[in-house]
Amino acid sequence: MIETYLGRGGDSGSFPMAMFLLWALTFASAFYWRPSWRPNYARVRVGILKLVPLPRANFDLKEFGGVGDGMTDNTEAFEAAVAAIREERGMGQLERWQRGNNGTIDGQGQVWWTRFKQRALNNTRGPLVQFMWSRDIVISNITLRNSPFWNLHPYDCKNVTVSNVTILAPVTAAPNTDGIDPDSCEDMLIENCYIAVGDDGIAIKSGWDQYGIRYGRPSSNIVIRNLTLRSTVSAGISIGSEMSGGVENVTVENIHVWDSRRAIRIKTAPGRGGYIRNITYNNVTIDNTMHGIVLVTDYNQHPDEEYDRAAIPNVENLSFTGIYGKDVRIPVQILGSEDIPIRGVSFRNVTMKLHKKKDNVFQCAYVEGRVFGSIFPAPCKNLDRYDDNGQLVMKSTSHNVSLIDYAL
To answer: Which of 36, 123, 135, 314 could be 275's S-S partner, Cβ–Cβ 3.0 to 4.6 Å?
Structure first.
């Protein structure tokens, strides 16, 4: 009846399971289920994915007593609908299809944001939509707005598609209203969405410190494409910092980030353990941001003091191709450390027009990698230089040089 939510970042605590599964879905009209669907995500990095055909069964929430007036408590209606789906499905993982009809789910988060800032909450703020331990999920053609906490949070799910979804929250004074947070998920496609929120547009996670290490479920095989994002507080697309189960095989392509604090951000810290590897960014447009690309290894927030300080994350094989920006103050900032060096970074066709001219705008520390062809601004000396044909021009002898201007 009560689920404990510990070690996932932000708040911790307990709240009713119905909220834990599907918080405030008072405007939703139907659940759909199809047991036979198994999309092929085996090689999602290739980018060939197919949405599923129309499902076979329809579960209308109104038939279970749901009322979409923005005021009625529909917890019992959701519990009854989920029980009916489970009964027809039989034992095993629950499969769901959540398809909107261009409607809106409004989490009415203002009261939660206010009480959170006043430190007046006794319970964790609930995500607006949350799926747990489920598979074969499609969420499409719907608007999510004003979540008390994260908007869409699939946790330990497999084969998830999010398509044609709009996610909105005030870009200031709406704490932790991340857009989409894949958390220990495998085989996921996020496409054709507009996200403007009060925290990360997308944040890929897999557990926090010792809790994520113990659970041991990575986020892997994820494609994110054809998105427009805005985040004046955090980043358009983030990985971490809760990544202790590992994050790998992620492709981000055809993305526009505008009027934001950061466009791309990867963050971790000693104590996380796990890994971030095989991450590809292609065709990213950045418009008016403080930072273009940021990688940090000192994001030292922890759930408690029991974390393993010797649990060092591994960060490697990160590729940035076709990154174009204008009005960017710090185009690239890669902050590895002696404990957590960043290896296997590559840049190709990167051009960022600066907000104003400033030395050391491509900043590096403890990073190994390669630059192909000509990029602007000039890369840091930590990186090996190759021509457009992949021939070595100059090998770096200073991978551990720290060239950071914290006054920027």
So the answer is: 314
- Given a contact cutoff of 8 angstroms between Cβ atoms, the answer to whether 96 and 33 are in contact is yes
Closest CA to 223 of 155, 286, 143, 162: 162
Domain residues of the chain, as ranges?
99-403
Residue of 178, 183, 187, 199 with catalytic role: 199
Residue 129 to residue 124: CA distance in whole angstroms: 15
Strands (E) located in 68-157: 94-106, 129-132, 134-145, 152-155
Measure the CA–CA gap between 350 and 379, rounded to whole angstroms. 10
199 is catalytic: yes
**Token pair in block for residue 144:** 């999510």
- Give 228-261 pLDDT, tens digit per residue: 999 999 999 999 999 999 999 999 999 999 999 9
CA distances in angstroms from 99 to 18, 29, 55, 57, 146, listed in the order given: 19, 8, 10, 12, 19
CATH match for 99-403 among 3.30.70.141, 2.160.20.10, 1.10.3290.10, 1.10.3720.10:
2.160.20.10
Average pLDDT over residues 74-82: 87
User: How many CB atoms are located within 10 Å of the residue 48 CB?
Assistant: 10
Query: 386: which strand partners?
Result: 372, 392
Query: d(Cα 38, Cα 54) in Å, to the nearest integer?
Result: 13
pTM for the model stands at 0.84
Judge contact between 144 and 105, C-beta under 8 A. Answer: yes
Secondary structure (DSSP) of 235-260: EEEEE-SSBTT-EEEEEEEEEEEEEE
Nearest to 235 by CA among 256, 261, 204: 261
pLDDT value of position 84 = 86
Torsions phi, psi for 17 (to 5 deg): -65, -35
- The CA distances from residue 403 to 282, 293, 333, 336, in Å, are 26, 15, 9, 11
Rounded to whole angstroms, the Cα distance separating 199 from 232 reads: 8
C-beta neighbour count of 122 within 10 angstroms: 6
* Beta bridge partners of residue 250, listed in sequence order: 222, 279
- Contact indicator for 315, 345 with CB cutoff of 8 Å: no
User: In which residue are the tokens 């720290």 written?
Assistant: 402
